[in-house]
């Protein structure tokens, strides 16, 4: 049995589906208020048999602050994909993310100690990366700089990683993945599911970031769980691409003119950036230690995972085309 937490999220749902396609038995966590029909609906974008696979999922309501609830979820489980997290870039939610992201991960790992779990994969983010290697790229050694200014989300992911590293040091077989901005279908109003609606605005940025298709993240995560790797992290991105690649495609599909890049003078105003971060969740996922990220090209390396798996990622352009088509079909 495999447990996938956060299974109604943009990534968790696809990991569940890919596991089911491989004939694995999956238990999936959700909130009592989760919209399962929205998940079922989104499966039609990924498979010709959405109902067949969806009906195989063993759903379970889990309270990550309740160890008894977690123990029930882990019964007979051998592998855990921990995708559950609160994603917000509103400072008012910082304490919530500390409780749900950090505390939830800590409690889950505590429950794992007395369970049948043999391997644990944690989904983190490129938001925790700081510093560049000798080639001028962020890689798996770009350690979090506690002295830098980070969003509450980035801090919560870093502290969650610390919980995973602790469990690894105590003997648990663990793997951490750090995806870039995930492009996927469904869950349109949350996290990176907001990508297309927010990219319809008439302005964009000169710089770029690291993007990755949700299908690639799911497949890479599953492949890593099959390998004898432990105590390591892997950046999972397709490529570094311009922000305007997404906005131009979205606006063209909507019959609008290309977006105009915001002037550098606007981006130097921190209060303005904060306003834009609320409008565009994508900004909060990025490192916020420097406003330069909005004006320059992203520099994140996927060399390690490509070398290990000999994996060929879906291009950002093809990913946007696929999921934008799905987004537009749902808007009709």
Q: What's the tally of helices?
A: 14
User: What is the rounded distance between the termini?
Assistant: 38 Å
Q: For the residues shown, what is the average pLDDT?
A: 87
Q: What does the largest sheet look like?
A: 7 strands, parallel
Task: Report the sheet-strand fraction.
Answer: 15-25%
Structural class of the helices, strands and pairings? alpha/beta
- Which residues form runs of ≥5 with pLDDT under 50? 284-290
Number of strands: 12
Strand ordering within the main sheet: 3-2-1-4-5-6-10
Order of helices and strands: EHEHHEHEHEHEEHEEHEEHEHHHHH
Global Rg: 19 Å
- Residue share in helix: 40-55%
- 3D shape: globular
Question: What layout of secondary structure does this protein have?
Answer:
Elements: E1 2-5, H1 12-21, E2 26-30, H2 36-42, H3 50-54, E3 58-61, H4 67-73, E4 79-82, H5 94-112, E5 119-123, H6 152-169, E6 173-179, E7 181-183, H7 195-198, E8 203-204, E9 208-213, H8 214-226, E10 232-236, E11 239-242, H9 243-253, E12 260-261, H10 264-267, H11 270-279, H12 281-285, H13 303-309, H14 316-331
Parallel strand pairs: 1-2, 1-4, 2-3, 4-5, 5-6, 6-10, 7-9, 8-12
Antiparallel strand pairs: 9-11
Helix pairs in contact: 1-8, 5-6, 9-14
């Amino acid at each position: 049995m495999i447990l996938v937490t956060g299974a109604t999220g943009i990534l968790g749902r696809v990991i569940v589906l890919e596991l089911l396609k491989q004939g694995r038995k999956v238990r999936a966590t959700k909130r009592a208020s989760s919209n399962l029909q929205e998940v079922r609906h989104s499966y039609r974008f990924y498979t010709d048999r959405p109902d067949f696979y969806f009906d195989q999922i063993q759903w379970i309501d889990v309270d990550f602050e309740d160890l008894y609830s977690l123990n029930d979820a882990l019964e007979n489980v051998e592998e855990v994909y921990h995708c559950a997290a609160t994603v917000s870039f509103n400072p008012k939610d910082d304490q919530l993310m500390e409780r749900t992201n950090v505390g939830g991960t800590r409690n889950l790992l505590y429950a794992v100690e007395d369970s049948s779990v043999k391997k644990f994969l944690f989904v983190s983010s490129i938001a925790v990366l700081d510093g560049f290697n000798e080639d001028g790229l962020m890689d798996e050694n770009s350690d979090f700089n506690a002295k830098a200014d980070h969003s509450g989300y980035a801090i919560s992911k870093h502290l969650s990683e610390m919980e995973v590293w602790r469990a690894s040091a105590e003997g648990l077989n663990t793997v951490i993945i750090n995806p870039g901005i995930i492009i996927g279908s469904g869950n349109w109003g949350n996290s990176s599911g907001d990508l297309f609606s927010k990219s319809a605005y008439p302005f964009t940025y000169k710089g770029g970031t690291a993007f990755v298709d949700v299908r690639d993240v799911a497949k890479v995560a599953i492949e890593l769980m099959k390998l004898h790797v432990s105590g390591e992290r892997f950046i999972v991105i397709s490529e570094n691409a311009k922000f305007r690649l997404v906005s131009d495609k979205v606006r063209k599909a909507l019959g609008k003119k290309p977006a105009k890049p915001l002037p550098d003078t606007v981006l130097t105003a921190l209060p303005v950036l904060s306003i834009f971060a609320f409008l565009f969740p994508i900004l909060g996922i990025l490192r916020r230690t420097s406003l330069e990220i909005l004006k320059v090209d992203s520099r994140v390396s996927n060399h390690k995972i490509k070398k290990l798996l000999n994996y060929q990622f879906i291009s950002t352009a093809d990913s946007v085309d696929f999921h934008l088509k799905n987004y537009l079909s749902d808007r009709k």
